[in-house]
Write a structure and sequence with these properties.
Elements (H helix, E strand, L loop, with lengths): L1 H10 L3 H10 L2 E2 L3 E3 L6 E3 L5 E7 L4 E8 L7 E4 L6 E2 L3 E4 L5 E4 L5 E4 L8 E4 L5 E4 L5 E4 L7 E2 L4 E3 L3 E5 L7 E8 L5 E4 L11 E2 L8 E4 L4 E5 L5 E7 L7 E7 L5 E7 L13 E7 L3 H4 L14 E4 L5 E4 L4 E3 L9 E3 L16 E7 L1 E2 L4 E5 L4 H9 L6 E5 L2 E5 L6 E3 L6 E8 L17 H12 L3 H24 L14 E2 L2 H7 L6 E5 L2 E8 L5 E8 L6 H12 L10 E7 L2 E7 L6 H6 L6 H21 L3 E3 L8 E3 L5 E3 L6 E3 L30 H16 L16 H10 L11 H4 L2 H14 L10 H8 L14 H4 L1
Parallel strand pairs: 26-35, 37-41
Antiparallel strand pairs: 1-11, 2-8, 3-4, 4-5, 5-6, 5-7, 8-9, 9-10, 11-12, 12-13, 14-23, 15-20, 16-17, 17-18, 18-19, 20-21, 21-22, 23-24, 24-25, 26-27, 28-29, 30-36, 31-35, 32-34, 33-34, 33-36, 38-39, 39-40, 40-42, 41-42, 43-46, 44-45
Organism: Punica granatum
Protein name: Receptor-like serine/threonine-protein kinase
Membrane topology: Single-pass type I membrane protein
């Protein structure tokens, strides 16, 4: 009762004008406005404000309230920024007391709640649009449902929010919010906000704050429950009789207060603009915003600079450009092909590091080193194919991977320098085009002898010389212990010569794909009922190449599962090492998901369960436990019936049956790597489970795990966006209009929850593959997963 009395006292000066506006501008039940008619607004008694339709673009309309007497017609409230109304739409105050916005087909776009007590509506001179009963009480008001702006006399109660618009001209919801929390703390943050403490500005009044009030004199302050001032937010004395006022949470995340001279209104012959008063909140958002969730003041891979007009600008680092040049806050993308981990050290000479003084991306390091100088920092990043940025400061190096977030230019950070990895001179990767190896010494000798011969005597001489060199070469090879052929110790596999595989592949003519260890070619075994095969030519073996090759042959040769690609045979002849697999006619899962029409939901669920069963076999059921280390759509192949089969064991790490963990160098592919790869932690089968979780999300959504070209910044990182939808109860958004999927919401929700468990940052929280398989198949109940670590922070 006391708070109600205080609120009445605050509004007493408004009662005469409010009563007058009700008397003069009542909008009766059944009244309506067309979006494109000659009369598309209802005005307040003084004409200062109007409620109605604002044309935005391309025949679309915004239902809004705006200042009507000034040149800019500034919008201060809108109903349908996220879903604009098409031409021919209509807003009606129905007989049932609802305000309803409908499209030309009569389908509802936006509406107020039903309240049978409503007698009429009014556009007040305060800028508040109200639905009232016959006694003058407001049953609904725009002041209680603000968008991004508040006006004098407006009060924000606990739970109320201001939400910034997307851009200066786009009225859809932006990524910043000002929220008076239920505990009384007034905060500014970027959703999703799973941790209420991760605000970039706060009054720190939890347990005390009650209401935010904007009074007629231009003061904006937070009160205690008894009405006394708890915290001043903005305090610039102005006269409401001389200026219009508004305070807005703008699209750049800053809360600002503005005034506009009333004598500059239309008809006065003078055209002026809004002037900012009071200090903005926060004063420097570039250095204020530091959140583990979200992308900060600017988009991914960009950094924020506070310019001379005290407004933040988003800029791209050297070698990067805006994803959307028309909207700089959307983030940046590289103008070059990033370093390939498949090519490893072959590519490092193609990159250099560029300096950016006083710039930092402060979060999401995957490694750091103390007691380093700047040059060692540079080399550490150049030698690491996963490193895109290194921050050097105070003799410490912090390594980061793209995408990076929360970037800022800070003039006070004089000892901080960002080093950005870029490709030199627009160079391209030195990737072999595939096919057999370059001709060895034997071939060159024979070709040379034929080319040089011009007479029988010379031919004879060269033949003898060639024979002598050939003899010395082969003897040298035997002395080095090189075997021309190795008979398979596995009776189920066939041993091939290099020449045989050259012939069955037509001189390695048709390339099927390229992986980390070489290229794959199509061939036909004519001696075996014309069986089609896939021949993998290993091209990048290290000094331990024999070990890598024998590991792959020995491991895959002993596996037998319908969800694993079958190894038919091999070749180990001199320096030539090849593997012969069964041919998979439907290619990779990557092509199936991303390069054609959207596959059926049923088939995608079958594939997910098939991959899970294949990993379960590798982890727990075959004779030696195998960690694949590179689970991704490119390594899942599909046979003639679209059965999923796991391929490419070239990166597999064998564990003895009494082992559970091993230390190894970073292997795998960006986007699917578990966090422990970068934290000097022991590697276990849980890295495969993390990669499977990302793969499962891609199967659910039919899109890649990271897409920076998307217009909606919140959807760029798939795992973050899916969890947002799950957390907000909006899983239907990820359906993409897939009716089959939306009709199977129970299973879709289960799959999403399983994926969230799989990508937990802490490996111990990830379930084993046996449980993953059981959860996918519905045999085991899936508990509610905790929020996973941000994809930005773990890739």
């Amino acid at each position: 009762m006391a708070s109600a009395a205080i609120r009445v006292l605050l509004l007493l000066p408004l009662l005469p004008s409010a009563t007058l506006s009700q008397a003069q501008s009542n909008i009766n039940l059944g009244s309506s406005l067309p979006a494109d008619g000659p009369n598309s607004s209802w005005k307040s008694p003084s004409g200062d404000f109007a409620f109605g339709f604002k044309r935005i673009s391309n025949g679309s309309f915004l239902l809004a309230i705006w200042f009507d007497k000034i040149h800019e017609k500034t919008v201060i409230w809108s109903a349908n920024g996220d879903k604009l109304a098409p031409e021919g739409s209509n807003v009606e105050l129905t007989r049932e007391g609802r305000l309803v916005l409908s499209d030309p087909k009569g389908e509802e776009i936006w509406a107020t709640p039903t309240d049978t007590g409503v007698s009429y509506a009014s556009m007040l001179d305060t800028g508040n649009f109200v639905l009232e009963d016959g006694k003058g009480s407001n049953l609904w008001e725009s002041f209680s449902q603000p968008s991004d702006t508040i006006l004098p006399t407006q009060v924000l109660d606990q739970g109320a929010k201001l939400v910034s618009r997307y851009s200066a001209t786009n009225y859809s919801s932006g990524r910043f919010e000002l929220w008076l929390q239920g505990d009384g703390n007034l905060v500014m943050y970027t959703p999703p906000m799973f941790d209420p403490t991760s605000s970039y500005w706060s009054t720190q009044t939890a347990g005390s704050g009650y209401q935010v009030i904007f009074n007629r004199t231009g003061q904006i302050y937070l009160t205690y429950r008894n009405g006394s001032v708890l915290s001043k937010i903005m305090s610039q004395p102005v006269s409401s009789s001389e200026v219009y006022q508004r305070a807005v949470l703008e699209y750049d995340g800053v809360f600002r207060q503005y005034v506009y001279p009333r004598n500059a209104s239309l008809g006065s012959g003078r055209v002026m603009g809004w002037s900012q008063v009071s200090s903005p909140v926060p004063t420097n958002i570039c250095t204020s915003i530091r959140q583990n969730i979200g992308v900060g003041a600017c988009g991914v891979n960009s950094y924020c600079v506070l310019e001379d007009d005290q407004r933040p600008r988003c800029k791209c680092p050297s070698g990067y450009s805006y994803i959307d040049p028309s909207y700089e806050m959307d983030g940046c993308k590289p103008d070059f092909l990033p370093q390939s981990c498949d090519e490893g050290m072959l590519e490092k000479e193609l990159f250099t590091m560029r300096d950016m003084i006083n710039v930092n991306w402060p979060l999401n390091d995957y490694a750091f080193y103390r007691n380093q100088d700047e040059e060692s920092c540079r080399q550490a990043c150049l030698n690491d194919c996963l490193c895109d940025v290194v921050i050097f400061g105070g003799s410490t190096c912090w390594k980061k991977r793209m995408p990076v977030s929360n970037g800022a230019f800070d003039p006070s950070a004089s000892d901080t320098k960002a080093l950005i990895k870029v490709r030199t001179n627009n160079s391209t990767p030195n990737i072999p085009l595939g096919g057999p190896r370059k001709r060895d010494n034997r071939s060159m000798i024979i070709i040379g002898s034929v080319f040089l011969s011009s007479s029988a005597a010379l031919n004879l001489f060269l033949l003898l010389l060639t024979s002598l060199i050939w003899f010395r070469y082969t003897r040298g090879q035997k002395a080095l212990g090189v075997k021309p052929n190795v008979i398979s110790p596995f009776t189920s596999m066939q041993s091939f010569t290099y020449q045989e595989l050259r012939e069955v592949t037509g001189q390695f003519q048709e390339e099927l794909g390229r992986g980390a260890f070489g290229s794959v070619y199509k061939g036909v075994l004519t001696c075996n009922e014309s069986r089609v095969i896939a021949v993998k030519v290993l091209e990048k073996l290290t000094a331990d190449g024999d070990g890598e090759f024998n590991t792959e042959v020995g491991t895959i040769g002993r596996t037998n599962h319908r969800n694993l690609v079958e190894l038919i045979g091999f070749c180990n002849e001199g320096q030539n090492r090849l593997l012969v697999y069964e041919f998979m006619p439907n290619g990779s899962l990557a092509d199936f998901l991303f390069k054609g029409s959207r596959p059926s939901w049923f088939k995608r669920t079958e594939i997910a369960c098939g991959v899970a069963r294949g990993l379960l076999y590798l982890h727990e059921e075959c004779s030696k436990q195998i960690i694949h280390c590179d689970i991704k759509p490119q390594n899942i192949l599909l046979d003639e019936s679209l059965t999923a089969k796991i391929s490419d064991f070239g990166l597999a790490k064998l564990l003895m049956t009494d082992q559970t963990r091993t230390m190894t160098a970073v292997r795998g592919t960006k986007g699917y790597l578990a966090p422990e790869w970068f934290r000097n932690m022991p590697i276990s089968v849980k890295v495969d489970i993390y990669s499977f979780g990302i793969l499962l999300l891609e199967l659910i959504c039919c899109r890649k795990s990271c897409e920076f070209e998307l217009y909606d910044e919140d959807q760029m990182i798939l795992s973050d966006w899916v969890y947002d939808c799950y957390y907000q109860g909006k899983l239907d958004l990820i359906g993409g209009g897939d009716e089959e999927m939306l009709e199977d919401m129970k299973r879709m929700r289960r799959f999403v929850m399983v994926a969230m468990w799989c990508i937990q940052e802490d490996p111990s929280l990830r379930p084993p593959m046996k449980k993953v398989t059981q959860m996918l198949e519905g045999a085991v109940e899936v508990s509610i997963p905790p929020a996973p670590s941000s994809f930005i922070g773990s890739i």
